[in-house]
Amino acid sequence: MNKADIKPIKNKKTYFQIIQTFIDSILNNKLDYGEKLYNEGELMEILNVSRPTLREALRVMEFLGIVTVSPRKGIAISNPKNNNYYLPLTYILAFEKTSNTDLFELRMSIEIEMVGIAALRATEEDFIILKKISEDLIKLPKGDIKKFTELDQLFHITILNCAKNNLCSKLMNTLNVLIYNQLEQIHKALTNDDRFNTIEKHSAIYKALISRNEEKARQAMRDHLNHAYGVTKELPNIFCNKLI
Predict the structure, then answer these.
(1) What phi and psi, each to the nearest 5 degrees, are found at residue 77?
(2) Distance CA 210, CA 224 (A)
């Protein structure tokens, strides 16, 4: 048997160890969201690292949304509630070659469940917003694909917001750019009759929501997405990795 070519284990880069230290402290409740940290000089002494190494760690942690660094306010642990999306995941998804089918199947798995929850949790104010979006879609000129796409996406995002699930809303907001690109592809492939069918499907979803019928809401969303899913599978397998 040939010996495997196993390399010696190397120590993690110092800046990565600093990041891990901060994450562990947050997970172990030693640091709280919003808590202000020591200044750079104090952190350098506590962590026994150089200024360039500390600043490298801080830049990465700021990009990841772990800390905020301000010349006036200093260094503080970020509060995730202040962000409505996951910035690092946006760039990961933009880099990764995500197929139309994979993205749409993820949408279906989330939206069909969330619309049922939305039927139970949506407020009257939510229903007013959904009705306005639906009315705007009906008034739209037939050839305005861009605006049709924007309103279609807004309708779906509003339903997700109706479910009052912050984690789900942030995840879908992170996917927004990819979803918009996909919707635009779909709408370009649709006939005017198909787009009218989309408006009718939206109406069915809205009626199920205002009647607080979660099963009808899920079925209406399933019917709507199944048609679009069929269109999606017929599109060229263009990877949805374009940031706009």
Answers:
(1) -75, 130
(2) 17
Q: Does the model's pTM come out above 0.85?
A: no
Tokens 């139970």 identify what position?
A: 120
Q: What are phi and psi of 217, to 5 degrees?
A: -65, -45
Would you state the torsion angle of the CA atoms of residues 77, 78, 81, 87, taken in this order, to the nearest 10 degrees?
-140
How long a stretch of residues is the chain? 244
Q: What backbone phi and psi angles, to 5 degrees, belong to 76?
A: -140, 150
How buried is residue 145: exposed, middle or buried, by Cβ count under 10 Å (0-12/13-18/19+)? Answer: middle
| 1-57 residue pLDDT tens | 344 454 544 556 888 888 998 888 888 888 899 888 878 888 888 889 999 999 999
Name the token pair of 52: 């360039």
Q: What's the 3-state SS for 64-88?
A: HCCEEEECCCEEEECCHHHCCCCHH
- Return the SS3 of 36: strand
Residue 56's CB: how many other CB atoms inside 10 A? 18
* Alpha-carbon gap, residue 194 to 134, rounded angstroms: 16
Spatial separation of the C-alpha atoms in residues 241 and 92, rounded to whole Å: 9
Alpha helices per DSSP H over the chain:
14-27, 40-47, 51-64, 87-95, 100-121, 124-139, 145-162, 166-174, 176-189, 192-210, 214-234
Q: How far does CA 104 lie from the centroid of its chain? A: 14
